[in-house]
């Protein structure tokens, strides 16, 4: 009888479907701030996400904004922290899909501002005619696309070319670098997100030197996107893991990861306003 029971139990065990193990993932980060600091926080974030997801999550920082889209298109990355324009381009060029979007200072939207030094004598957008301007990256939402749309709509920039209004245009590569360039007098104005002054200038005396002369319409927050072809079960597990990353246990880590509070569910249609801005400006991956 005992032998028969063992045989039956073994047969049941063999017939029971094995639970599929979660697959290891590669998450690539958009380099919107100092890459070394971002990678340190990113690796810790990957470990925390991996524990909740159930498999290792390797994290790297892309060389630039365009490389994030390329990693999703080539499937060398499974997931990517994308800014809004980056997501629109990744969805169009690589068929990526949003998994969850950031909560930032309690909000799921932000704006772009055009910042100047208070001692520069610049009070309005028109005052910037013939001045020097630093954007962040040609694919940046708050650091290029939205402020350019604003300048076009105001009739200041012609033919989508910022040099029809500014004397000189440069790309700083990251938001913190742009803010520092403005503070140090290397340029007359910069475009960056609405809390850039507070985030990157910790000295109140430095903050006091910076003002803004224009602000864009709200922009849907950034988030994490999944590459085309990633198993739906894996995407669902990642989403569930991200939605758990809130509260005191994750507050310090998330602050170092793009200064965010947590994540909320997101849909592709949430980014339709960004698509409209991208089309108006004719943004394409480099």
- Rough outline: globular
Q: How much strand content do the residues show?
A: 15-25%
- The CATH topology of the largest domain comes to D-Maltodextrin-Binding Protein, domain 2
Strand order of the largest sheet: 2-1-3-12-4-13
Oligomer: single chain
- Counting H and I runs of at least 4 residues, what is the number of helices? 11
Mean pLDDT: 90
Distance between the termini: 72 Å
Which percent bin holds the helix content? 40-55%
Which stretches are low in confidence, meaning pLDDT under 50 for 5 or more residues running?
Answer: 1-5, 7-19
Overall structural class, as computed from helix and strand content, comes to alpha/beta
CATH homologous superfamily assignment of the largest domain: Periplasmic binding protein-like II
User: Domains counted in the coordinates: how many?
Assistant: 2
CATH domain class of the largest domain? Alpha Beta
Radius of gyration: 22 Å
| Element-by-element helix/strand order | HEHEHEHEEEEHEHEHHEEEHHEH
Number of strands: 13
Q: Mind telling me which CATH architecture of the largest domain this is?
A: 3-Layer(aba) Sandwich
- Report on the biggest sheet: 6 strands, mixed
């Amino acid at each position: 009888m005992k032998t028969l029971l063992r045989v039956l139990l073994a047969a049941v065990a063999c017939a029971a479907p094995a639970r599929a193990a979660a697959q290891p993932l590669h998450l690539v980060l958009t380099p919107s701030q100092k890459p070394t600091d971002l990678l340190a926080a990113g690796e810790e974030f990957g470990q925390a996400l991996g524990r909740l997801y159930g498999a290792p999550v390797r994290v790297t920082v892309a060389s630039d904004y365009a490389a994030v889209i390329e990693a999703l298109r080539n499937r060398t990355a499974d997931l990517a922290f994308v800014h809004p324009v980056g997501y629109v381009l990744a969805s169009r060029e690589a068929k990526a899909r949003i998994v969850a979007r950031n909560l930032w200072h309690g909000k799921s939207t932000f704006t772009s501002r055009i910042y100047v030094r208070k001692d520069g004598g610049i009070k309005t957008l028109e005052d910037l005619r013939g001045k020097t301007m630093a954007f962040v990256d040609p694919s940046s939402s708050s650091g290029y696309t939205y402020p350019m749309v604003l300048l076009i709509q105001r009739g200041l920039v012609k033919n989508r070319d910022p040099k029809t209004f500014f004397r000189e245009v440069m790309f700083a590569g990251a938001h913190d670098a742009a803010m520092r360039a403005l503070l140090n007098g290397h340029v007359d104005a910069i475009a960056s997100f609405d809390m850039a002054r507070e985030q990157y200038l910790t000295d109140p005396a430095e903050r006091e030197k910076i003002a803004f002369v224009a602000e864009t319409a709200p922009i849907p927050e950034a988030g994490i996107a999944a590459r085309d072809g990633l198993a739906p079960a894996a995407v669902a597990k990642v989403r569930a893991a991200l939605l758990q990353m809130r509260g005191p246990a994750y507050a310090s880590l998330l602050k170092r990861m793009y200064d965010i509070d947590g994540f909320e569910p997101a849909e592709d249609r949430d980014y339709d306003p960004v698509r409209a801005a991208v089309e108006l400006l004719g943004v394409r991956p480099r």
